[in-house]
Structure formats: structure tokens, C-alpha cells
Amino acid sequence: MSTVYLNGRYLPDDQALISPLDRGFTYGDGVYEVIRAYNGRIFLLAEHFARLASSCAKMRIGAHLTPLEAVPAKLLEANGLGGDALIYVQITRGTAPRSHLFPPPDTKPTVFAMAWAFKPNPALADPGASAVLEPDVRWSRCDIKVTSLIPNSFAAQRARDLGAHEGLFVRDGAVLEGSLSNFFAVADGEVRTAPLSNYILPGITRAVVLDLCRDHGIPCRETPVYATELPDADELFLTSTVYDVVPIDCLDGRRLPADRPVTRRIAQLFRGVVERECA
């Protein structure tokens, strides 16, 4: 049994109860964040809460987030999580009579958070992740980290059914992102990734990687990466809070070169950031 947070209280998970009329249950009307802890220390908390605030604002959910910033650390302590862990924070529009219209402005959001020990899959680092291309059938506000994840879930499951780790969404010929990750390609030494838009999530790890490239003289560009270009790419890799930085070893059944110097350097630089922040 673990300790979770619900609407201002820390309590055993089997006592964390919400109304069946909560809009997160009836409509999937909510937003969330997944935050990483290394060695019991939370990584980039401010950046995650800034994105959570942005998601709330775009969804017109009026949650007061500042008091919640202490919750991840308290959950780690309450659950004895001194190693690597993940913290999940979810905010829904709250409990209200079922209606497509928003409930009254004074409706209190439902705030839930939990934490658990996390052990990365070593195979994702070596030999790397396998991926398949997927038509992007998601809604057009993928920049909001909403709890309604059915298209992502279908893509992830199809990838699993095909023996792969990740599905990559393709819209109008461009590879945008994965079902739970951002996507990068390396061609002629240049790192490329889809530009921010309403069709991709502004990934926290994605932003760190782009900053590292700029700071360390690695050519990088935010520009569309087309599926037709992938056979000529030297390297492909994924980033996310769960993945960190992992190479793609196989795409749609085609093996990629095992020598991945740019991805390897970026992964090492990212690890250096983690060690500085979470030593």
C-alpha cells in the first residue's frame, strides 16, 4: 500500500476516493504531469510545474498550483523512495453534474498525485528502442498534456503488438513525436526535431537537449522531419521524462547503424545535467 495525495490530504491509496461525477472520469477532462526523481531528488520541478500551469490555462482549469510544488517531495518521503522514481500529478475540472458545458467557475478542481519506484529498461539504451510509424489521428491540441490519451494508447499498443517500443506519429508526411516521447533525427551531423506547434508536446527533456546542443556546438534545428527522409538519416533518437535520451535501433523493421556518436554525446551531456541537479 502506498501513500497518495488527494485534494490536500495524504492518505493510503485504497482510501483515495473520488465521485463518479468527476469530469476526469466522465469526460477525461483533465491535465497531468510526470516528473522524474533521481537518487531521491526531483529533476526540473519548476519546468514541469510551468508546463502544468500552461496546460491548466489552455484548458481553462483554475487550479492554484504553488502549494502543490511541495507535494512531489513529500510523496517521495512518505513512500520511502530514495532512489529513482516517477511522480504523477493530475488535475481535473472537478466534480459536477454531467454536462458538455463547463461547470460553474467555483467548482473545485480534483487534484491527485502519486509516486512509485522506477527502473529504466536497460535495453532502451543498448541496443536501443524499436519504433514504428503511425498515422496521426489525434486531436489538434497535442501541446496540452491532457489525460485523454486513447490515440496515444492505441499507438503504443500497436507498437507493442508489432514487437516495438514506441509508435511515431506522422501527419502530412512529417514525423512529429512518439506516443510518449519527442522524436529527433540526425543527418550530416545536424540534429533536427519538429518545431513547437499545436501538434506536439513541448517536452521538458526535448528543451534540455536543444539547449545542450546549442551550448556545446552541436548543430541543431527545429524543422519538419519527413518520413521520406528517415532512410537517409544517420541516427534517430527519442527523449522523454521516462526515456531520458535513447537511440532508435530499429524503425519499421529496418535496423539503423549501431554507431551513434551524436546521440551518444547528447545522452552523456544529459546525464551530466542530471548528475549536477540530482547528485
What features would you describe in this structure?
The chain is α+β, with helices and mostly antiparallel strands and 279 residues long. It folds into two domains: 3-117, D-amino Acid Aminotransferase, Chain A, domain 1 (2-Layer Sandwich); 122-277, D-amino Acid Aminotransferase, Chain A, domain 2 (Alpha-Beta Barrel). 26% of the residues lie in helices and 29% in strands. It is built from seven helices and 15 strands. The chain is globular and about 55 Å long. The two termini are 29 Å apart. The relative contact order is 0.14.
CATH architectural designation of the largest domain: Alpha-Beta Barrel
The assigned structural class equals alpha+beta
CATH superfamily of the largest domain, please? Answer: D-amino Acid Aminotransferase, subunit A, domain 2
Computed Rg = 19 Å
Distance between the termini: 29 Å
- What is the multimeric organization of the chains shown? single chain
User: How many helices does DSSP assign?
Assistant: 7
| Mean of all residue-level pLDDT scores | 97
Total of domains: 2
Instruction: Estimate the strand proportion.
Output: 25-35%
Beta strand count: 15
Largest sheet geometry: 9 strands, mixed
Q: Spans with pLDDT under 50 lasting ≥5 residues?
A: none
Topology order in helix (H) and strand (E) letters: EEHEEHHEEHEHEEEEHEEEEH
Helicity level: 25-40%
CATH top level class name of the largest domain: Alpha Beta
Overall form: globular
